[in-house]
Amino acid sequence: MNTNSNVYTIVYTTLIVVVAAAILSIAAMALKPKQQANIKAETISQMLTAAGFSSKEDLAKLGNDKVLAMYSQNIKTAFLIDAEGNKTGELETEVSGIELQDNLKLENKNIQNGNPSLPVYVFEKDGQDINVIPCYGAGLWGPIWGYLAFNADCTEILGAYFDHDSETPGLGAKIKDEPSFREQFKGKKLNFDNPDNPFDIVKGGAPADNLSAIDAITGATMTCNGLDAAIDTWAKAYMPFLQKKAAAATGDDCCEDGCCEDGCCEGHDHDHDHGHDHAHHHHDHEHNHQEG
Amino acid sequence: MNEDLKKTLLNPIFKGNPITVLVLGICSSLAVTVQLKGAFVMALSVIIVTGLSSFVVSLLRNSIPNRVRIIVQLVVVALMVILVDQVLKAYAYAIDKQLSVYIGLIITNCIVMGRIEAFALGNKPIPSLLDGLANGAGYGMILIIVAFFRELLGSGTLFGLRVLPASYVPNNLVILPPMALIILGCIVWVQRSIQKDLQEK
Fold first, then answer.
1. How many CB atoms lie within 10 A of CB A191?
2. Measured between CB atoms, does B82 come within 8 Å of chain A?
3. Per the CB 3.0–4.6 Å rule, which of A136, A182, A196, B95 could disulfide with A145?
4. Strands A200-202 vs A157-164: parallel, antiparallel or unpaired
5. Global pTM?
6. What span, in angstroms and rounded, lies between the C-alpha atoms of A64 and A41?
């Protein structure tokens, strides 16, 4: 047979590609449940690491089941909030059916649209609440994401963990691999007075007196800019919730002993504290805090 | 025939080693040799990919249209690499994450395409399979030697277990890629002083 004719070439390549695609689809379908269980455990380990319960390395040694159990034991509540910081739904935290809001890519889009459904994971450690929220954005080569852990009133960052899809090993990948980069987040705070840019990652070194900035990684400017933008975008989306938490802690005695653990202080009017109009009628007003 | 097979199998391990003699696959050998575990999985992945790709291409060798030869080879190699990546994601997720982009980059590893072009297209499936496996093994062997020194001196551990006393201060230079190149250079040096015919005049 003439293997160099046009018809033969076209039929042959088509056949090869179809066969390859079929093999890959079958493999992907067969392996998917196992892969998703891994991803779930990975996401949970990232949160536990950010919240300071363990380290990523130790959790990796535990295996998926124990990581899930550890999450269930330490979590107090997990829920979803809307753009105004009001609670809209619960996430299951029982070990048998842990629910996570981990499609951060979709939520990132929803933040731009002004209609997000953002997760808040409230852990409890030594009697203190730890609020863990995610962030997501674009690095140099692909998506980057991570988790920030705040203290009970969301005024101080307790820890952070970041991950990436395909940043350059040794440079951009240091947002994940370099513990000293993540350490910098401890004790920092978001700048509530500047909701558009509540946090900075500064090339060449952040001023020591700036509590809302850390040093960028040398040689990873694009990744650091992307992470900065990711934190800013997501922190801005969470801002109403975080501000309510902070206001509750300073303003109202009732809230200090934990009656507002659902995070939105229903029944208490704190709106005068920060000039937002978002009590219980959040259906039709304009969000002035959405990304352009 | 038996002699031929033996030569096919042993030549790539030492005398015609893809890394130290053909100088292929340097990039990933610098990147994934910080720890033995990663190097070991990478070596295994490359062995599987080179072996199976050579085998499949050799099976198809008489039917492949010459004009789209490279593309068909790439489809086969990419298929194998994605399969390996999917299996690792399911059964060795932590290591897959650690190897990150380098598993995907096996596709561009010159050893794979090099062996298909140079051997599998002109030989029967079984010798091609052995040739692929042996070349992968030759690559893997160098990877593991480099990773042995880098993990031992850079972290004081082997396969994550501490072997040097806690008083040993890890050498951070060994962790960095340049040191992998230096170790690789030393291996080439040792090999060429044993095998005098490799020395250039």
1. 17
2. yes
3. A136
4. unpaired
5. 0.73
6. 5
The DSSP call for residue B26 is H
Q: Using alpha carbons, select from B128, B41, B7, B28 the residue that is nearest to residue B76.
A: B128
DSSP character for B120?
G
Task: Please report, as a single letter, which amino acid is at residue B83.
Answer: L
What is this model's ipTM? 0.80
Digit-coded pLDDT (tens) for A52-105: 998 888 888 888 889 999 999 999 999 999 988 899 989 988 888 888 988 899
Phi, psi of A143 (to 5 degrees): -65, 150
Domain ranges of chain B: 3-196
How does the average pLDDT of chain A come out, rounded?
84
pLDDT digits (tens, 9 = 90+) for A164-200: 988 877 788 889 888 889 999 999 999 988 888 999 9
CB contact under 8 A, B89 and A31: yes
Contacts with A140 from chain B: Cβ below 8 Å = none
Where are the strands (E) in chain B, listed by range? Answer: 157-158, 161-162
Name residue B64's amino acid.
Answer: I
Q: β-strands A87-90, A75-81: how paired?
A: antiparallel
